[in-house]
UniProtKB/TrEMBL annotation:
Enzyme class: transferase
InterPro entries named in the record: CmoB, Mo5U34_MeTrfas-like, SAM-dependent_MTases_sf
Biological process according to GO: tRNA wobble uridine modification
Record field: catalytic activity: carboxy-S-adenosyl-L-methionine + 5-hydroxyuridine(34) in tRNA = 5-carboxymethoxyuridine(34) in tRNA + S-adenosyl-L-homocysteine + H(+)
Gene name, Swiss-Prot/TrEMBL: cmoB
Organism field: Corallincola holothuriorum
Gene3D superfamilies: Vaccinia Virus protein VP39
Subunit structure: Homotetramer.
The protein's Enzyme Commission number: 2.5.1.-
Family the UniProt entry places it in: Belongs to the class I-like SAM-binding methyltransferase superfamily. CmoB family.
GO molecular function: methyltransferase activity; transferase activity, transferring alkyl or aryl (other than methyl) groups
Name the record gives this protein: tRNA U34 carboxymethyltransferase
Pfam (any one): Methyltransf_9
Amino acid sequence: MHASQDQQLFEDFYADIIGSPLSHWLQTAPAQLARWQKEQRHGELDSWLRVVSKLPELSSTSNDLKHSVTFGSEAEASNSDRARMTGLLKQLMPWRKGPFQLYGMDIDTEWRSDWKWERLLPHISSLTDRNVLDVGCGSGYHMWRMLGEGAARVIGVDPTQLFLVQFLAIKHFAPKTNPIHLLPLGIQELPELKAFDTVFSMGVLYHRRSPIDHLFQLKSQLRPGGELVLETLVIDGDKDQVLVPGERYAQMPNVWFVPSSEALEHWLERCGMVNIRTVDINVTTVDEQRSTDWMDRLSLNNYLDRNDQSKTVEGHPAPKRSIIIANRPE
């Protein structure tokens, strides 16, 4: 039962990349995803997928991916539809990245991911007709915004299976022809495709035990001349400044390296990237990351020093994030 279920999860992806610059991925992806189905399925995955299957069948032309992630208008669904959607989608909590608007129902996520998108959008190359990879994509909020900017197709990879189901829940309301797909894989599991026009890695680097390997993995997905958009935690300092936290950073247990922007630029240079530039540095506020009705767990406000919000509870510099853009050489 699982095998046929999972084949259906990815058949649109297989069909979409036939004849595209990503078609050589078909040599490895089906076998790899079959192994995932056999060896790595989360115990709750089937129950989560049943939640998605119970969502009301609604369709609309009142969709907006350019300014938000919105499917349908309030007038196109009943109050009972919205109540049903709310009850079902709250079974897939916590919702981290968003927000999403579905037929007048708002999913108020922990992160205002739209703010990050607005910070980076003026600085990146146009996504029109580009093949785009979003590494560590979460539930896919930014993927929809990439599609809204005219991308030919958007592929996200993230091993967290709840995020896959959240993505499928949103995709349930989207036009079936949208060329957007999420695979439950990590970047280290991908072959060197060398085919994407733009690769995004946002909020991933500091979770990698070997950040240099991560940068090489990102580079290996880009076509010659392709663009990398890298967003990550940074600290103040010169190119030799790197924070290696203790057991936790802002209560996150898996933060390994937090470089300065200058250090990160230097790392990218050592990896053979060119046209490297920091385009934005922004302090994360408790308005951008916070607890909500859709993410009712502790959030940033709980992880900052109560007496000095420029520091985490561990005494490290509070979260500051940098956006760096670079290119693979032609």
